[in-house]
């Protein structure tokens, strides 16, 4: 099947009220209205969705995988940022 | 073969069931051939909606939906000539779906007020499906008509070729009138202005010309079909006719 030169859109679906939209994949479509229909047709066939967002793939700014060390490794040594680092005194009842 | 006493109420359900099955099968012929994966799934989704509608309607018409679908010849089919027309190019398939959905969507909405509770219940499900069919086909027609010179020419050719099949949607014979009088069937004449307005709005946005009303083809509702239905049914019915009672 040939793929025409239409733009790519990233698809986000909210499955239940109260949950955030989650990235589920991408579609080809000529414009936003058709992208929304394509997303509905490709990604909500089994009752997955209550709400759909589509975003032009080009509108997403992504981090460079080569920057992984600089961006993410400094956080790994800071275990005191996790709540499990702290012991809760027995006297504290409501936390 | 299956013999069916075509009372007005049986005929009423059978006509709409055949519309839905034949158009659903036509759209399913796009499987593996659509211009892009997204549209492949969109057409398959619509086909499945229509086949689902057909099953519910066949259950209203007779005891055995499979026998009605697979064991009747073309002369016993009661669908509109419009829906049996071949897929042609993509513009042709979209124009056919649009012209039908612009009728079927308000028809089903009116049928939610049918005095027949079974049909009204089917209508409640179907009108949500047809609303999407109309939006999808209409949006595509606008993009084809208002697209490139090539897509515009193909879309206009499709609308022109299919136009003579649109009059049959509003044709009322004695059986249909009996159902309208009993408040079971929707009043087709009352739906016509809405169909005209939808078609005029979408064609204008698509920069397509509305064809002039000339001779309108008829015959599908009484079994006088175009040459296209027989070969379609031959493919659709081959397996159950070659292997009666086959299950999988």
Short description:
The complex is a heterodimer of chains A (95) and B (248). Chain A has 95 residues and is α+β, with helices and mostly antiparallel strands.
Q: What this model shows, in words?
A:
The complex is a heterodimer of chains A (95) and B (248). By secondary structure, chain A is of the alpha+beta class. Chain A has a domain at 8-63: Phenylacetic acid degradation B (Ubiquitin-like (UB roll), Roll). Chain A is 22% helix and 21% strand. Chain A has helices at residues 32-43, 68-76, and strands at 8-14, 22-28, 51-56. Chain A has a 3-stranded antiparallel sheet. The mean pLDDT of chain A is 91. Chain B is mainly α. Chain B has one domain (8-242): Ferritin, CATH 1.20.1260. Helix content of chain B is 65%, strand content 0%. Chain B has 10 helices and no strands. The longest helix of chain B has 29 residues, at 117-145. Chain B is globular and about 50 Å long. Chain A binds chain B through residues 1-4, 6, 27-31, 33-34, 37-38, 41-42, 45, and chain B through 32, 34-42, 45, 135-136, 139-140, 143.
Please outline the helices and strands.
The complex is a heterodimer of chains A (95) and B (248).
Chain A: E1 8-14, E2 22-28, H1 32-43, E3 51-56, H2 68-76
Antiparallel strand pairs in A: 1-2, 1-3
Chain B: H1 8-28, H2 37-61, H3 65-70, H4 81-84, H5 90-111, H6 117-145, H7 149-162, H8 174-181, H9 188-205, H10 229-242
Helix pairs in contact in B: 1-2, 1-8, 2-6, 5-6, 5-7, 5-9, 6-7
């Amino acid at each position: 099947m040939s793929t025409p030169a239409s733009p790519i859109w990233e698809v986000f679906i909210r499955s239940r009220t109260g949950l955030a939209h989650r990235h589920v994949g991408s579609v080809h479509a000529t414009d936003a209205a058709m992208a929304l229909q394509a997303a509905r047709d490709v990604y909500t066939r089994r009752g997955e969705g209550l709400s759909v967002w589509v975003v032009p793939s080009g509108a997403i700014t992504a981090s460079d995988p080569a920057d992984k060390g600089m961006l993410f490794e400094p956080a790994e040594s800071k275990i005191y940022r996790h709540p499990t680092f702290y012991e809760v005194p027995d006297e504290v009842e409501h936390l | 073969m299956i013999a069916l006493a075509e009372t007005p109420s049986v005929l009423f359900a059978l006509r709409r069931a055949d519309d839905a099955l034949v158009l659903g099968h036509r759209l399913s012929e796009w499987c593996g051939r659509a211009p892009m994966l997204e549209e492949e799934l969109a057409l398959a989704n619509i086909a499945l909606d229509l086949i689902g509608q057909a099953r519910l309607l066949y259950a209203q018409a007779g005891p055995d939906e499979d026998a009605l679908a697979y064991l009747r010849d073309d002369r016993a089919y009661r669908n509109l000539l419009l829906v049996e027309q071949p897929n042609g190019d993509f513009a042709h398939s979209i124009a056919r779906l649009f012209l039908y959905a612009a009728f079927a969507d308000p028809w089903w909405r009116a049928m939610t007020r049918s005095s027949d509770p079974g049909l009204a219940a089917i209508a409640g499900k179907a009108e949500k499906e047809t609303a999407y069919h109309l939006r999808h086909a209409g949006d595509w027609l606008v993009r084809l008509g208002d697209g490139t010179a090539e897509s515009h020419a193909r879309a206009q050719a499709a609308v022109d070729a299919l136009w003579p099949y649109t009059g049959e949607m509003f044709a009322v014979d004695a059986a249909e009138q009996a159902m309208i009088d009993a408040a079971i069937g929707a009043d087709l004449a009352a739906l016509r202005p809405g169909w005209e307005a939808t078609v005029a709005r979408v064609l204008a946005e698509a920069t397509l010309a509305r064809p002039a009303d000339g001779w309108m083809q008829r015959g599908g509702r009484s079994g006088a079909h175009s040459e296209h239905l027989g070969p379609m049914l031959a493919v659709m019915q081959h397996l159950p006719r070659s292997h009666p009672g086959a299950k999988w």
